[in-house]
Amino acid sequence: MRNKKDVLFLCQYFYPEYISSATLPFNTAVALSKAGFTVRALSGYPKEYNLTNNVPLQETYENIEISRLKYIQLKRSNFIGRLINYFSFTFSVALRFRQLGKYEAIIVYSNPPILPLIAALANKFFNTKVVFVSYDVYPEIAYFTNTISEDSVISKMMKRVNKFIFKHINTVVALSNEMKDYLLKHRIALKKHQIEVIPNWCEDKAFSNGTKAYENKLLESIKTDENLVVSYFGNMGICQDLDPILETIRRLKDEKNVQFLFAGHGNKMDKLKEIIETENLNHARVFDFLHGHDFQKALSISDCFIVSLSDGLTGLAVPSKTYSYMMASKPVIAIIGANSDIARDLIDHNAGYAMQAKDSAKLVIFIKELLDDREKREYMGENCRKLYLEKYTMEKCTRKYVNLMHKLLGEQ
How many whole angstroms separate alpha carbon 252 and alpha carbon 258? Predict the structure, then answer.
C-alpha cells in the first residue's frame, strides 16, 4: 500500500548540479521533506554542471533518497546532441516504469519535453497523482526559435504526446500568469482550477555591495567608482535575444564609463565571444558559467542587469535569473513582452525598465540614465530588493509547493 506522503521528483538535473534546473527542484524537495513528506528523486547522473567527483548512483542527502541514472550525454550546444540526451534519459526512466507505482505523487519537469509522458502513463496505469512543472512550453518554443518546423515529424509527435500528457495530470505549475494564460488557451484538456502559478526564485545570499575583498582579480578589475557595470548572466541560447545587447555594446563603444559583463552558457556564447574579439569591443568581457562565491562577486560588482527573451516567447518561458538580480538589489532592464509578470513588476514597482525586442536605441537610453543618475539607480535597486522579499524568496515560493501537495493529497 502506498504512503500518502510519498512524493517522487522526476527530473533530468538534481543535486549536486548547480544550474537552476537542478537547484530549483532540489530546493522544492527539501521544503517538502521538512514539511513531513517522504521525498525521493530519480534524476540523471551529473556530468556537465557538477563540481563533485565520484557522485554515487544512490544516496540520501537532506533526508531525500536520490537515485541517479546514467544515460548518453552529448554536447547540449548541438540540437541533435540535446535530442539524443532527451531520449536517452527518458528511456532510462521508462525502464524503471514499474517503480513509479510505489508513489502517491510525482512532480515532473518539462525538461526534457518528453519526460512528462512517463509520469502521465503512471497516472493512467497506477492512478499516481502528477504535478507537471512547466519551465518551458513545447513544442511552440521550438517553432518560434526555428529549432523545428511546425509540420515536422518531431512536432507532430510532440502534439500527440502533449494531448495524452494533459489528459493525465492533476496539476500544472506555470511560472507566470502569462504562461498560465497561454496554457489555458492552447491546451484544451486543461481547466483553470488545474493550473497554479508559482514563480521560480533565488536563494537569498547575503553579501556587501561595498566590499573590495574580491578573490577573483579579473572580476575586481572591471569595477571602478566611476563606471557602470551592466551584466548579463545565465543562458545565452535560442530563447535569448542577444542582438539588441550587442548593438548597444557597439553604440556605447566610446563610452569609457560603461562596462559590459557576460557569464553563462549556451549555443550563442561562442558567437558572442567571437564578435567582441573581432570588433575590439574591449569594454565587454565574457566569462564561463559562474557559481558559488564567484557568482556572488559578479552580482556585487554589477550596477544593473539585463534579462532577455526572444520575440514571441512571452508566455512560453520565463528568465529566472531575474530573481537573482532582484535579490542583489540592482535595477533590471528586461527585454521581454509588456504583458509579462516581470515587465509589470519592474514598471509597477519602479524597479527597472521593460522594453520590446530589437530596440537597442531604448536600451542605450536606459543604460545612460542609470550611468548619469546614481540616486535613481540606488532607488530602483532598493525597490528590486523589496520586490524580491515580497514575492520571490525561496521560502515563500517553496511554501506554495508544500501547500499544493497538501491540497493534492487531501491533507488540508
Answer: 7
Residue written as cell 536517452?
Answer: 88
Cα 286 to chain centroid, rounded: 20
Give residue 208's pLDDT: 44
* Mean pLDDT in residue range 18-39: 96
Write the single-letter amino acid at 398.
T
Q: Is the separation of the CB atoms in 202 and 196 below 8 Å?
A: no
Give the bridge partners for 134, in sequence order. 174
Beta-carbon count within 10 A of 203 CB: 13
- Give pTM, 2 decimals: 0.92
Query: Is residue 207's pLDDT more than 70?
Result: no
**Which amino acid, 307?**
V
Q: Quote the mean pLDDT of the chain.
A: 91
How many angstroms separate the CA atoms of 362 and 304, rounded? 15
Q: For 138-160, what is each residue's pLDDT tens digit?
A: 999 989 888 888 888 888 999 99
Q: Quote the pLDDT of residue 189.
A: 92
10 Å Cβ neighbour count for 345? 24
